[in-house]
Structures are given as structure tokens and as C-alpha cells.
Specification:
This protein is about 25% helix and about 20% strand. It is built from 20 helices and 25 strands. Strands 19-18-20-14-21 form a five-stranded mixed β-sheet. The chain has a four-stranded mixed β-sheet with strand order 2-11-10-9. A hairpin with a 6-residue loop joins strand 5 and strand 6 (about 125-130). The longest helix is centred in the C-terminal third of the chain and has 17 residues, at about 555-570.
Length: about 625
């Protein structure tokens, strides 16, 4: 299952009973409203609104945000171009609605949006969605099954992410004026009927029409023509590459749906672009440019927030608990490059990341070392493989590192003064076994004399402080690693084309992994520009385990397959794990009304906040507004 956009998946301590199988058997071919993959929604069949929102939250005001970089497209579903803020490569962003909406306060739960209900047979060979007759585009035309069928076809053809997510969906067929059936090429994919709800619906009549100059529109190309949408916001105005302003649609068709009650309260959303993070930070502390600042640096959280507005109480710092917070974050090694194709090389580079010292000296001990691709969940591997997981791994034993079966996976700790010397020696020995030696203080290839040299690509200038200690450690054994910072547009393009040696990636997972795993790890994704297989993994064992995850028969099977996949990925050292933490840190200008509690699953739900006119007026009197 695809993680909720802008959230951090992985619930811990989930029940090992895979309730979907029970529910599906009981409700095969019966219409269902809310869907679920692990356990039934806490709201049951009487979902009226999220229980944490203020149903009487006032509408109005402006949410100001900043973005580093630029944009040149309002079409996020193709690889070309840099989409503007408010658009999303997966899902509808601010402009489009999807068939269903992933729940904000529960993992792997879906609620109605464009579709009011869905049903599927007991063998999971298809799914049928029934559209809400009230669903409308912003021009007043109804959202039709033809729009859904067309959207499915163009997204599978042009979006690498949707293509792999819906790989087992062969076609979408209109079976009535309100019903569309999605047919699958394999049975038993228990997740697939539910995740079709993630399909974004695009307006066929608009995209197949002509622009103001009479030129036919092309969904396969970037565009800066303002598209027709269906969701709560539409584009009001923009300055190419520097600003985009969204306005709330006052007669939005879905405003009274349960997932929308008390949410999407801002009348205007302004995104201003800055060239770098330093300028963006200055804009935040000045006021009027960025109302909410998410903080990702432990050092920043502890040291930066001492400016006058903080001391005056006009900017508030707050930590929000997020049970789904953990991700795999780390340096991805591009195995398309010959330098990183030897597992021993990747292992040595993983050993050389000194998390302990960085966490102590730069992050005030606030971070936790990542030890799994499914960190914080019952799906994470640990100890030695056993039970069903071991049986599964034994099927591929001759193709896996033998140590996987005899040793618990771990990374060395820089916890004592003598640890560094020991770890450096381990890394040098690993590199020597792979054909690399130190000569004249430089790590070189023993046969060719070529230097061990690579570049770490990034666009965040502020990341240099946490990346340089790694570069320094590498240089201690003669590895010539350098940092290269490019603008965000160039970075995105290079990432999409896999044109990098090493870069920092964040690989979010959900509490019910499934079809999206193909986009992360499959051999097919490795050759598909725009996929999230940044590492270039092409491993038949990984491909087989991904299929085991997708076609798991129950929760026990899913747990065993996911742990096996996790273990194989870890022991192949594709990523140098960095760190995570269980909280979301926000600093925000004191202009908001906020519900008494926020969903602990994702942390803050900004869509449930609203502008307090009196607070906003008081701030405007003290600080210069962007207006």
C-alpha cells in the first residue's frame, strides 16, 4: 500500500491476524464504503467525520508557504518537468480528487471520495467502484466513468509510479453510467482492490480539448496552462518559477463528505520560491512568507529558534507524536555505476557512517539509527531468520550471502574511542577483498590504479553540516568523496534519470506493504526513469520476494515475506542507513486555531487547522506581511 503523502508510515505492534481475508470472505461482491487492509476502521460503517477535527472550523485567511527551487509544469504525472507546489506525483495534490482517500488517523484504511462504494469477488480477480453522482469538475461537469477509465490508461502509460503500482491491473471497463470495473491478470492480490482507491481522476474532456490558442493539449508533456480540477482548491495565479497561489473553491462538490468536514479551511494558499534554504529561513523568521516551518535537524531544533518572534511568543515550537514516523533514510548507492556493484564495497561504505558521533555532536542525541527498511513495525526483520521467514529464505539459499543465515544484521557502533580505528580497519579489509588498496594515502584499484572516487549529489545546502563528517571519514582511508549541490530542478531531473553516484533518499513504507514495492526494488523499475529504485537493484531473489509480499495470503504470510525482503535488502547494503525519530517538529506563527488533539498516526494534520482572524490581525500589526 502506498503511504499517505507527506506522512511517515509503519505502525508498531499490529495484530498478526490479517483481517482483510476474513472481511473479504464475508463481504465478497457486496458494496463496501470504507475499506481496510489490516483491521476495520474504528468508525465502522457510520463514518461521519474524523473524531479529532473541529466540525465548525471557520474558513478563511491565507496559509503562506515557501519552497526551495523552481517549477515549470502543472503536470506532475510525467517524468519531464518540475511540478509546482500543490501538485503531487502520486495522488491528486490540491487540484484533483482520487476515487477514495487514505485515512489520516488510521493505517491502511480508505474512505469514500469520488467513489461512494466498491466491491470485489472472493478471489480478488477484479474490483468495481461506484461513483458518487454528486462528484463534479470545477466547470460543473460531472465526473464520469469515462474520466476514470481514461485516467487509468494515461497514468499507466505515462507515470512510472502508477504503472508499477497497478502492474497487475489489465484494464478499466465502464460497466454502467456510474460503475467502473478494474480487471486483474492474477488472483489473490488482496491489496489491489483497495489501492485502486488511490487512482487520481483526471478530466478527459479538458485534456482532450484545446487551449486558448487552439492547440490540442497533451497529457504526456509538461504544461503551464492552468488545468481543470475537481478538488477543494484551484490555481488562482502564478509567476513561472517563483510563485503559485491557490484559492479554495467555495462550492466544492465534496466539502461535506466525512473526510472533508472541518478540513481544508484556508481560503488562500500561497507558495513562494526561494533559491536556497538560507533565504527560506530568513523569510520564515521575518514573518508573512512562511507560516509553518517543519524542522528536520536536531541541531536546528535546539539552537536556531531564538529570534525575537519566538521570545515574544509569536512563533510557537511544538513536537507532535507520529506513530508512523519511521522511514528508511540514507545514502543510496547507485549500482548502475561499476564502483558500487560489489557488495563488499557497499558494506565498507555503510560501516564508515559514524551515526553515533553525528547524533551526539550535531543532533543532541535526538535521533535513532535506522536498522530496517520497515523500521518501527512488526514487519522489520531482527535476530536470525526463523519459522516461515526462514523457510522462505531457504528457497533462495544458494543465491544469498551465507552470513544472512548465521549472523544478525547490524552496523558497527562508534561508541568508544578505539571503535573508529577498528571500523576503519574492517572497511579497509572489505575493500581489499574487493580489489581496492591504499597507495600513497589514496584508495585505488589494485589492477588499474584508478582512484576510488565518487560524488554525493544533493540540493540542500543546509545538509552539508551532517554530510561532511561522512566525507571526512571516507577520506581517512583514501576515498575521494565530494559533495555536489545543484538546484532543485536539476536535482530532480538527475534523480529521475539515475544520473548520480550517491544521494540521500527517503523510502517511506506503510504498515501494509504491497504493490508499491515494485517501484522501490524490482528489476523492471531499475530501468524505468522516474522510479524509486534509485539503487538500481536487479536481483531475481528481490523480485521473487516482492511478489511474495504482494500475493501474501494472510497477515502471517505478509509478515514473513516482508521480513525476508527486509533482510535481503539489508545484507546487500544498497543504502547507508542514517537516522529517524518518532516525532514531527514544527515551528509556526501564532495565527492558527488548532484542534485540541491531532492524529497520532501521522502527527499534525495541517488541513484541520484554521486561521484565527484576531491572531492574524495582531501579527500583521507587529510584522510586515507579504501582502
Amino acid at each position: 500500500m502506498k503511504a499517505i503523502p507527506k506522512t511517515f508510515p509503519a505502525l508498531a505492534g499490529l495484530a498478526v491476524v490479517f483481517l482483510l481475508g476474513v472481511a473479504a470472505a464475508a463481504s465478497a461482491d457486496e458494496w463496501r464504503t470504507s475499506g481496510w487492509l489490516i483491521r476495520e476502521s474504528k468508525y465502522g460503517d457510520n463514518f461521519q467525520r474524523y473524531d479529532y477535527v473541529n466540525p465548525d472550523a471557520p474558513k478563511g485567511g491565507t496559509l503562506n508557504s515557501t519552497v526551495v527551487g523552481t517549477f515549470d509544469s502543472f503536470n506532475p504525472y510525467v517524468v519531464q518537468g518540475s511540478p509546482a507546489a500543490g501538485f503531487s506525483q502520486f495522488g491528486g495534490g490540491l487540484l484533483y480528487d482520487t476515487l477514495m482517500e487514505q485515512a489520516i488517523d488510521e493505517g491502511s484504511v480508505y474512505h469514500p471520495l469520488v467513489a461512494e462504494a466498491y466491491k470485489f469477488p472472493a478471489d480478488y480477480s477484479s474490483v468495481t467502484y461506484r461513483l458518487n453522482p454528486a462528484a463534479r469538475w470545477h466547470d460543473g461537469q460531472p465526473i464520469t466513468v469515462d474520466d476514470v477509465v481514461w485516467s487509468f490508461n494515461v497514468l499507466k502509460a505515462n507515470s512510472p509510479m502508477y504503472n508499477r503500482y497497478f502492474e497487475n491491473v489489465t484494464e478499466a471497463v465502464a460497466v454502467s453510467d456510474r460503475e467502473v470495473e478494474f480487471r486483474f491478470n492474477q488472483k489473490g492480490n488482496r491489496e489491489l482492490p483497495n489501492i485502486l482507491g488511490d487512482l487520481v481522476v483526471l478530466p478527459k474532456h479538458w485534456w482532450e480539448g484545446t487551449d486558448a490558442s487552439g492547440k490540442k493539449r497533451d497529457i504526456t508533456k509538461p504544461t503551464l496552462e492552468i488545468p481543470l480540477g475537481s478538488a477543494a482548491y484551484k490555481i488562482k495565479s502564478f509567476k513561472p518559477g517563483s510563485e503559485i497561489i491557490w484559492e479554495r473553491v467555495p462550492d466544492y462538490w465534496g466539502g461535506k463528505l466525512p473526510v472533508k468536514v472541518g478540513r481544508e479551511n484556508f481560503d488562500t494558499r500561497r507558495y513562494t520560491y526561494f533559491l536556497d534554504e538560507s533565504a527560506e529561513w530568513l523569510a520564515f523568521i521575518k514573518g508573512g512568507w512562511q507560516d509553518i516551518n517543519p524542522e528536520n535537524s536536531g541541531r536546528g531544533w535546539m539552537t536556531k529558534y531564538d529570534f525575537p518572534a519566538i521570545k515574544a511568543g509569536d512563533v510557537i515550537k511544538k513536537e507532535f507524536k507520529a506513530e508512523s514516523r519511521a522511514n528508511m533514510q540514507g545514502f543510496a548507492m547507485n549500482t548502475r555505476r561499476p564502483l558500487f556493484q560489489d557488495r563488499r564495497v557497499r558494506q565498507a561504505l555503510s560501516y564508515l557512517y559514524d551515526f553515533d558521533t553525528i547524533n551526539r555532536t550535531q543532533s543532541f542525541g535526538l535521533n535513532t539509527r535506522i536498522t530496517s527498511y520497515f523500521m518501527g513495525s512488526d514487519l522489520a526483520s531482527s535476530g536470525l531468520p526463523q519459522g516461515e521467514e526462514l523457510e522462505l529464505l531457504n528457497q533462495y539459499k544458494d543465491k544469498l550471502p551465507p552470513v544472512l543465515f548465521t549472523q544478525e544484521w547490524s552496523l558497527p557502533a562508534f561508541d568508544k574511542p578505539q571503535a573508529e580505528r577498528r571500523i576503519l580497519k574492517q572497511s579497509v579489509d572489505l575493500l581489499a577483498s574487493a580489489g581496492w588498496v591504499i597507495k600513497g594515502g589514496k584508495m585505488v584499484n589494485a589492477k588499474t590504479g584508478a582512484p576510488f572516487r565518487f560524488e554525493i549529489l544533493d540540493f540542500r545546502q543546509g545538509a552539508e553540516a551532517t554530510m561532511m563528517p561522512y566525507v571526512t571519514m571516507l577520506r581517512k582511508i583514501g576515498i575521494d568523496a565530494t559533495l555536489r549541490f545543484v538546484d532543485q530542478s536539476q536535482y530532480v531531473n538527475r534523480l529521475n534519470d539515475f544520473d548520480f553516484d550517491m544521494t540521500t533518499v527517503v523510502l517511506p513504507q506503510s504498515d501494509s506493504p504491497g504493490n508499491e514495492q515494485r517501484d522501490f526494488w524490482s528489476s523492471k523499475a531499475a530501468d524505468s526513469p522516474g522510479s524509486r529504485n534509485y539503487e538500481g537493484i536487479k536481483d531475481p531473489v528481490v523480485d521473487a520476494l516482492v511478489d511474495k509480499v504482494i500475493f501474501a495470503k494472510d497477515r502471517d504470510d505478509l509478515t514473513a515475506a516482508t521480513r525476508a525482503l527486509d533482510r535481503v535488502l539489508l545484507w546487500n547494503f544498497y543504502v547507508v542507513p542514517q537516522f529517524t525519530r518518532p516525532d514531527v517538529w514544527l515551528a509556526y506563527w501564532n495565527k492558527f486555531g488548532i484542534p485540541d488533539r491531532q492524529p497520532t498516526y501521522i502527527g499534525p494534520d495541517i488541513e484541520s487547522w484554521w486561521i484565527d482572524p484576531e491572531k492574524e490581525k495582531a501579527l500583521a500589526a507587529k510584522y510586515k506581511s507579504v501582502d
